[in-house]
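Internal ticket #5521
Category: modeling
Description: The requester needs a full-assembly model to guide mutagenesis choices. All entity lines are attached below as received. Residue total reported by intake: 482.
Assigned to: D.W.
Attached entities:
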Amino acid sequence: MLSVDLIIFGASGDLSARKLFPALFQLERLNLLENDVRIAAVARTDQTLDAFLPTLSSKMSSYMGNDAPSDAEWENFTRRFSYVSVNFSEPDKYAGLREWLDDDRISLFYFATPPSLFAPICEHLSQTNCLAGDCRIVVEKPIGESLASSVQVNETLAKYFDEKSIYRIDHYLGKETVQNLLVLRFANSFINSQWDNTCIDHVQITVGEMVGIEGRWSYYDKVGQLRDMVQNHLMQLMCLVAMEPPNSLEAESIRDEKVKIVRALRRIDEQSVEERVVRGQYTNGWIEGAAVPGYLDEEGCAHETSDTETYIAIKAHIDNWRWSGVPFYLRTGKRLPEKVTEIVIQYKSLPHNIFGEDANIPNKLVIRLQPNEGIELSMVSKRQSLKERMALQAHPLNLDFREGSDMDRIPDAYERLFLDAINGDQSLFVGRDEIEESWRWVDQLISACQKRKVEARPYYAGSWGPAKAEVLIEKDFRSWHV
Ligand code: NDP
């Protein structure tokens, strides 16, 4: 097998220090990086490796806390490093990189840069003969902001790389719990046989953030929560919950099944949008006891008004045999009271309960990605008591991933994804047609909202979104899990 070189474009950026280098370091610590893997940190500033490393080290230490590398580990890790200065927009600045590359090895280019640079980087890599060897490319979201722009990005990438060499990251897919969802569904016969509209009442997917827009007002105001979170992360989670069993773990089998779900998603049109979509925008409020500004008072806000949503709730339907009649409620927002990402599968109530209607507590399977990754199945059991004859309670059965594991921590998603990209396994990366199909659905939703003037309703920072989001689910005699 060929040896691999990692070339990180945007090595001085936030993503690199927060996620990419810490993930690579953890792989090093676990002896999962082959000895001869080389790492090129590529960034604009003209400086030496000796000048670059201390800054990286201090940023990584602040993100990694107690898990940060010791001096000896740092020295061992950074023996792999070179620093290459390139201004990505200028073709004549790629000579140093060309010199560093070795065409007898696999070059894995990681684009941790603004998406506007993807096209110029590809073009200049090609012009300067940097793509002469066996190359792969990893790209971060967002892949476009609409169907048209995502097609444009994908077309550009396809000019220089074949689909098998393009690794589109949705880091949610690298999370242990998400991989465990596949195992739970397809390796447990009792779960697998109860995974359809005969047993499941509805599904909820919640991605709640406590943060606001973190100084990114001008970027965020053009995008909003639907494009920033639903089109990628929530849609990917929904696909993994809903897809048919793939015939193998090969990337193509998994992607084929996921894209069928996106295609089966019922379009949200002008007639149904008011019934099925709630948009919101936070006003000032309180998060963990501290006052926080509203969206329009955030630093960098350039307008007096804005209709950009910082919250969205959607009632989605998958029109296929398995899921007919089972709504998928999706919601995500900023400045919510908890940082939480979870999928809740709520089973149907029993048709008749011999313990009385009050005791009719439906089973729930909660798949939590954060905080505390894990899976919990709520079962009903008898409360131990002599006073009460037959008091029932919901009782969680917890799956603790760490049990039986050789690790004392849950690995970060980027560790899995780097390892897979190095090993050429695309199954946890997103295919082109999945991205484009999901943009098609999102574009139609946006257009329906605009035509029907479904405006972003105010909600207090620190609340669970606009009151209408409660109505969205409660009118179906259901309620949000948290
Ligand atoms: P930053 O702005 O922090 O970093 C961008 C990097 O690109 C810097 O290293 C910058 O170098 C470099 N760069 C920009 N323009 C040029 C140029 N012309 N020539 C050479 N280098 C250049 O961005 P992030 O790290 O936050 O994000 C990178 C990508 O990852 C974005 O697409 C973002 O959407 C995505 N992403 C980020 C996440 C995060 O947590 N930060 C999470 C998920 C996705 P210099 O320092 O010299 O300007």
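Resolution: model delivered.
Comment from assignee: The CA atoms of residues 171 and 298 lie 27 Å apart.
Ticket closed.
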